[in-house]
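SAMPLE LOG
Freezer: B-3
Tube label: C17
Construct: single chain, 681 aa
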Amino acid sequence: MGTNILAHNLTAMNAERQLGINNKTKQTLTERLSSGYKINRAADDASGLAMSEKMRRQIRGLTQGAQNIKEGISYCKVADGALNEVNAMINRMEELAVKAANGTNSKSDLEAIDKEFQQLKAETERILDTTKYNEIYIWRGKDPEVNYKRTGSTNVNAVNYSSTTMSLNLSNLNSTAQPIDGRIHIRTDETQGIQFYWTGYNGTEYESKWQKWPDDVTDTIRDPDDPNKFTTITHPGPVSVKVSELMDYDVFPDAKGIDGILKYNTNAYASQENLVNSLNSSYLSLPINFSHSAWTYKDNGDTYYNTISATVTLTYEAMVAAERDLDNVSDTSFARANPANNKNLKSEPAKSGSNYTGTWKFSYTFDNINTVTATMTGVSYTLSSRTDEDNPTWWDWVDKGKPWEWKNGKTKTVSSADGSNNVKGVVYALTNPTDGLLTADLNGNNSDSGSISISFNLTADSPFTIGTNPKTYTNVGTLTLTMSVNEKETLDEVMSRLLQMGGTDIFSGSNNDTGGVGYHSESSYLVGSTPKIANPIYGTEILRDTATHKTIPIHTAPESTENVRINITYPILRLEILGLQDTNVLTHEAADEALADIQYAAEMVSDSRALFGAYQNRLEHAYNGTLNTAENITASESRIRDADMAELTYWYSLTRILTQAGESMLAQATKNPETVLTLLK
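STRUCTURE (predicted):
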């Protein structure tokens, strides 16, 4: 083809193609010379790369295997070193046993020899028990395991109720809405949940809205089939709800102020049926009696409460009946002495010579109950402070051969035979020679104190009713009057103070100057009838390792087969296994027996040392063989992957020359079309 072609410069195209080939070759050679490898990517040699990577993996596994073998050798060396000391001590024990077996030793000599013998045994046991390599105890078996197993069951409550409060609002005019039996009952429905209800003294049936059942909750328990594992169990969820939160006061406006809290949780093994049965037989209950403080008066009407204190305990019915009209805040009491704030005695004791006879009986007017009589029923007394400088623990003191009966603060009740319902009982409490408030003393210094309490029953003179309920009541409650007594007083002085009791007003406020209602809220409790369910009881047992040998596997190569492991298997050594547990040299006969035991122990230790030495030699050869294999495979991998630097340098130089020549030829070829221009001139 002629060279005078203008449209295509084939010479330049050929020069450019050759230059590109040389540049690519030069780039590859540069990469190989820089890395030292002739395979830098899979495209360089796909099969060679695959072989090389397998060999690299094998080399690294063999290298780690060699390291494992070295650790196995170290393990054997540690064991052998420990047994070397054990061997030395056994040799010494044999020497001592031979010495003790000699008939020239006295008892003290044998005891002295045995002390060293026992110390050598103790050190042998310590070495065998504590020697370890990398936190692995060499002569211990597996640690004891705790195994759980079911040992029985115990009956527990399916439902656990928390303490709760139920309130009485006795300050409103509608107190006849209070529960007729003092209880807020509970009913359940499978779909709707929980509801409170009660019947008031006015005959109204009160019902709350429904409290929906909560979602079930999950607990973690021991698996009954395998107590060493845990599983989950679901049971009814807990509830905490107030009566007031569920009442519709548009429907039952007079129920305001009547409240209570239901709070419970269920046992992990409880079912919904257990819960329903429990709730249906449970209720919120107000206490049967309510305690109130009161004011006492002298017979002239002056307040005397600093000397004589009063406590009134009223029945639920009396409380509801008496406080119905306390919406009037100017009314400070719901029960007054009759006549008010004055001497209200129907009867009282009188002094007869040097003694006293008779009894106390008081009269009261209760709101909505009318006249109430307080009849004396009992006497009790307390030695609250007994001092004895020479004998602080006076309650343990023995006076005239009779042990002191009381401990500090113990209360004693006067029996009916001693006059518990009249003044005779008061005199007995004050003057009986054994432990009377005015007579009992340890050293006669009259420096002791105590208190006397007189109890009364409160009974309505005429039966009373509440609201529309036809049931009648007469029991109002009890009254207790308490006065402190000091041994320095005389009987007449104490009785003089007691005979000043003129009246007792029972206030609802905190004092006689405060109006309104002070006892409109009372604590209550929940009476829960809860079924019993069986909860499993799990006991534990310690599973000790009974193995006689221990195996330490040494993994030598990157394979999962058993034949690449060298198992260092050796006997577990303890003092009892060596037969030295009970050995002593306290007698000549014991020393003779000890020699046989020591010989057996020495043979076991020597055999173990020989075994560790054999394993150590084997591991040394295994180490050398593994390193040799790793070295040969490394050489093979090198031949596949490593670059021949001399050869690459030759080809790099050649390619560099060709590249420069190609660039020169390409420059000249691009000038060929210019010759065509000469034909146009």
